[in-house]
Specification:
Elements lengths: L1 H72 L3 H10 L1 H8 L3 E8 L2 E4 L5 H6 L8 H9 L4 E2 L3 E3 L4 E9 L6 E7 L1 H8 L8 E6 L4 E4 L13 H16 L6 H24 L2 H7 L5 E5 L2 E8 L4 E8 H7 L1 H22 L5 H30 L9 H14 L5 E9 L2 H8 L1 H17 L6 E6 L2 E6 L5 H21 L7 E9 L4 H16 L6 E3 L3
Parallel strand pairs: 15-16
Antiparallel strand pairs: 1-2, 1-6, 3-5, 4-5, 5-6, 7-8, 7-11, 9-10, 10-11, 12-14, 12-15, 13-14
Helix pairs in contact: 1-6, 1-11, 7-8, 11-12, 14-15, 15-16
């Protein structure tokens, strides 16, 4: 009897030690997978942010070009001031919600597009050459520069200024922008359930966040400093007697935002500094008592922080740890079962049956989890992660003389559908777009919903842009017909394409196709643009 007990404990000890060793190895591989996944996710997000900032710069360049020509033809400051006011409304129509006003310093005068009398600026001691936008332009020495963003609570958006010193060394063009495109970008970039993302500038100011109440908060300020910000906002609201309703709402929004950000920072504790100290490396941190995988990627001007719930990441990495762990368990049970000669045949047989059933249940659960992790919930298409993986496999396995075409797709004026009809109708339009895309490609081709109204197609075995263009024409034609049948609002899909060859990098191809898409989007009518070789 004692020998049996001793042998049983030996088996248990071997079983536990082998499991601990296997878990240690699998955990190392899982950590590498998680870090690579987070790095790819944030790198893609950063690429999208660069596109948004480029759009802001392009808008300013249009304004600067117009003003340079006008100064050349009509150098008198009064003429320039009148012209500046005359282009205010046209620029608003061109730039939409991004635009927030034009102004400049020219021949010793402050000229602007608003109707505010200059006496109001004089009464406040406003000196243009002492303002941040002018000083930033001087420091930029001819480069296009952005002044530090700040939160405009009156209008609920992040505001920044683009400015540029002109060749004469005195004239400065300036352009106020609402950075709402960044907030819209953040809402479309979340790869994981309940993920939190923040984009902040080099001063720590949050300019994009999955929680809008955090906008304008400063991650580099300590808890006491943010407590003081909250106290000042509360005092301002308490002393707000005699203010109108709009001013009271502004003060209340400041209090709500300051309170939300203070609560976040108080709960997050020292985790932010931990992530800063491990730049581009995922770390397990706590927020509101719950575990998250945190990741920060610092840039020269803008940085990203991503927080993914522990269970969301565990589900995503299931394919890394579940199969190896399952194999280890099966092998251990099999080996130890054979070593134990004293086990009765009936018990051994029953154990095998139970093991087989357990293995089958785990395989079914794994297949279901893998399928769920690879599919976009709204459309049933491949999601970004599975699409990116499939493209990488194609690029690595194709022959030297083979080629394909990567098409990046974006809906035209989709935001107006959400604004006018609501997000439920917007979702239906996205699902219709997905159906039309899938219905116009072959079974050997790949299609994915990336984010929001962004899609992608990979066309196999061709380097002919006419093939890709015909696919997009067919999709847009079908979209228009089907939307009419269903009595739904319709959108067109603009597209940019690039030829893919063996061993090309997906992120580089996506960037080139995105640039081509940017050119196509200028017409907002379902255009197609091929990348320049």
């Amino acid at each position: 009897m004692k020998k049996k007990i001793k042998k049983s404990w030996q088996f248990i000890s071997i079983f536990l030690l082998c499991n601990l060793f296997a878990i240690w190895i699998i955990s190392s591989k899982e950590s590498s997978y998680i870090n690579e996944s987070m790095t790819t996710h944030v790198s893609h997000s950063n690429s999208k942010l660069e596109d948004v900032m480029d759009n802001y710069s392009h808008s300013f360049q249009l304004f600067a070009y117009m003003m340079t020509n006008e100064i050349k033809n009509h150098p008198d400051p009064d003429d320039i001031w009148n012209y500046l006011k005359s282009i205010d409304h046209p620029m608003l129509k061109i730039e939409g919600d991004t635009f927030d006003g034009l102004y400049m310093y020219y021949k010793g005068r402050y000229l602007y597009s608003w109707d505010t009398p200059y006496s109001q600026y004089e009464s406040t001691g406003y000196i243009a050459t002492q303002r941040p936008w002018y000083k930033a332009a001087e420091a930029g020495n001819g480069e296009i520069v952005f002044t530090p963003p700040y939160m405009s609570y009156a209008n609920h958006y992040i505001l920044s200024t683009i400015s540029q010193l002109q060749p004469d060394g005195e004239t400065v063009f300036a352009y106020d922008i609402k950075m709402g495109d960044i907030q819209e970008l953040v809402s479309n970039l979340q790869d994981f359930p309940k993920e939190q993302m923040m984009i902040f500038d080099k001063n720590g100011t949050i300019i994009g966040s999955s929680n809008e109440l955090y906008l304008g908060g400063n991650l580099y300020q300590n808890l006491d400093e943010n407590k003081e910000v909250l106290t000042q906002a509360q005092n301002a609201l308490a002393d707000g007697q005699g203010l109108n309703e709009t001013e009271i709402e502004k003060l209340q929004e400041q209090v709500d935002s300051a309170q939300a950000f203070y609560d976040f920072q108080n709960s997050f504790g020292t985790s932010f500094q931990t992530l800063l100290n491990h730049n581009k490396t995922s770390q397990i941190v706590k927020l509101d008592g719950k575990r998250y995988y945190g990741y920060i990627m610092q840039g020269n001007e803008y940085s990203f922080m991503v927080l993914v719930p522990f269970m969301s990441m565990l589900q995503d990495s299931m394919q890394v740890w579940l199969i190896p762990l399952l194999i280890v368990e099966i092998l251990l049970i099999y080996i130890l079962s054979h070593i134990s000669k004293e086990m009765k045949n009936r018990e051994l047989h029953a154990a095998y049956i139970e093991l087989g059933q357990t293995q089958r249940r785990l395989e079914i659960a794994l297949n279901a989890a893998q399928k769920a992790a690879a599919i976009d919930e709204l459309t049933g298409m491949m999601n970004l992660k599975s699409f990116r993986k499939a493209i990488a496999e194609q690029l690595n396995t194709m022959d030297e003389n083979e080629a394909g075409i990567l098409i990046m797709i974006d809906g035209d004026n989709f935001k107006s559908i959400n604004d006018n009809y609501g997000h439920m109708i917007g979702d239906e339009v996205i699902k219709l777009s997905a159906q039309m895309i899938v219905g116009r490609i072959r079974t050997v081709d790949l299609a994915s919903r990336l984010h929001g109204d962004e899609f992608a197609i990979y066309v196999n075995n061709t380097d002919d842009y006419d093939v890709a263009k015909k696919i997009m024409i067919d999709i847009n034609t079908s979209m228009e017909k089907e939307a009419k049948k269903r009595n739904m609002p319709s959108i067109t899909l603009s597209a940019g394409a690039v030829i893919a060859k063996r061993n090309d990098d997906y992120l580089k191809l996506a960037k080139i196709a995105d640039d081509a898409l940017y050119e196509a989007k200028k017409t907002h009518n379902g255009s197609f643009h091929a990348a320049v070789e």
